[in-house]
Amino acid sequence: FYTLDELIALFLRQLKNATEAFIGERCDEVVMGRPVKFSDEDYVNIRAEEILYKAARLAGFKHITFAEEPLGVTYLEHIRSPKREIAFVFDFGGGT
Predict the structure, then answer these.
(1) pTM of the entire structure?
(2) What is the four-CA torsion angle of 6, 14, 34, 60, rounded to 10 degrees?
(3) DSSP label of 78
(4) Cα angle at 28 between 24 and 31, to 5 degrees?
(5) DSSP conformation letters of 33-55
(6) What is the CA radius of gyration of the chain?
(7) Which of helix, strand or coil describes residue 74?
(8) Is the pLDDT score of 15 beyond 90?
(9) Which end of the chain is more exposed for a tag (fewer CB within 10 A), N or C?
(10) Secondary structure (DSSP) of 6-31
(11) pLDDT tens across 40-75, in order?
């Protein structure tokens, strides 16, 4: 039996190991995307982020930060765009 954070850690550890093998060095930092709100209840949002944080620690990350999903999409568009543009990113909820 696994707790939710342990299950997530199994996946994150695989990603961490694959990344380290690909870049040839240790990877101790991670920026994890997260929904703007997991729930309308504040305590659920806090608990969900705690679970993700604990999972990242269990996977071996030492420096963990979070970015709300629209920021991740904006960054991805920024690095893929061949020229600088103004973009409007809107999070409709239920997935960016």
Answers:
(1) 0.77
(2) 70
(3) H
(4) 110
(5) EE-S-S-SSHHHHHHHHHHHHHH
(6) 15
(7) helix
(8) yes
(9) N
(10) HHHHHHHHHHHHHHHHHHTS---EEE
(11) 899 999 999 999 999 999 999 999 999 888 787 788
Residue the block writes with tokens 């568009």: 77
Partner residues linked to 30 by β-bridges: 64
Alpha-carbon span 43 to 67, nearest angstrom: 19
Determine contact, residues 36/91, Cβ cutoff 8 Å: yes
User: Rounded to the nearest 5°, which phi and psi values hold at 61?
Assistant: -80, 140
State how far the Cα of 7 lies from the Cα of 13, in Å rounded to an integer: 10
The kind and range of the H/E element at 91 are none
Report the C-alpha gap between 87 and 66 in whole angstroms: 22
Output the six-digit token pair for 49.
């982020």
CB-based contacts of 53, cutoff 8 Å, min separation 6? 64
